[in-house]
């Protein structure tokens, strides 16, 4: 009996191996996504898909396959097929298209390749200000829905094109209005624009265009000039398990951006990604010195801003968490209801003087125009090792919090609180400042009504004249808030000067209790 069971087990294992059945799949990570393939690599045309070669595509790296891909999309739509299929090869896009792009996306029809290592869609070279490859023609197709794009390398062939200095509109895919869009296991490289653009800009009517339920995951972004992915006029999007690196990123790896009061930009989650800007440089168009340091994730409301300078409910509710960031920052400009948590930063020093679109703090929560009503930004459980500037900065926000962050080696104050109120608890800070310019663990400036700073710990790990941190908490200006700040139960080890420094004109304003040296 035992012998029979053993023989059957061996037979089952051999059958599984023969049929390429994986009994216990392992999770993919951003470092492996570019080599991932699927069972399509050895399969015929998937069920419910139109093979582009049946429409005349060659995929030989020479022939212009633009028309064949366009025809395949239209054929699939006409025959109720959910996808077009691109067998292994290099499909050249030779047409120039129009200002919108070259190939119109088709509602309900996605694109499938065997994987970005073997399936390539590439712009031909020698173009001047090239258009995007795929786009939604929203005049003819008002909405795009139920599309999956997977297993394809999209290449803008940037090195062989010519551009005006201000040109930045050659995207891989541009979708302005629709829902249920998934992009997975793809590569986007060498575009003088965005890898992916979702939403529209400068709407004339509220939510004239809106993209919802977007998912971008397990993909690679390399050498993208403007943004790896831009979410604009979006409500509900997920960006996860991606690898963003290389040259470029004029604005950021991921840009969550509202341009006008007629747009909605809500509920975007960015998590479990790698943003590695240590292997490339920002574009020269940023001005100043050429540096690696760039914005990994940027959230903002730009241009004319909110009506009457009062924040509304259409910007925010974003979650940025568990990302690994090298030579980069996360910033939030004028958005509210934001959670930034569990991210790890590793930044070495670079001189960014004169470089546009950059600020020194690893996490920068700011307001460019004195907006009223900016509330509820939480920055918790991040690990920040940054030699660029502050670890965390808040400016002109209320109802904020920064709790249990671990911050080390910042050349400026580890946490800067400017005209901001909230709760700052349990942060662990070491070695902020420098010998020539000592800094505090937490700096407070301006009106901060009801601010509470409690149970934080700071320490110099150096001794004597090599110590760089002067105070645990330092108040450096007048505070005209209605409720005095509370500074309690904070500890400082081996501090250069003391534990708490109050502003000399308001020496008794702050409520101080049980702040001790350890």
From TrEMBL:
Transmembrane segments: none annotated. It holds the Pfam family Pect-lyase_RHGA_epim. Gene3D superfamilies: Single-stranded right-handed beta-helix, Pectin lyase-like. Residues 50-223 form the Rhamnogalacturonase A/B/Epimerase-like pectate lyase domain. This is Rhamnogalacturonase A/B/Epimerase-like pectate lyase domain-containing protein. The lineage of its organism: Bacteria, Pseudomonadati, Bacteroidota, Sphingobacteriia, Sphingobacteriales.
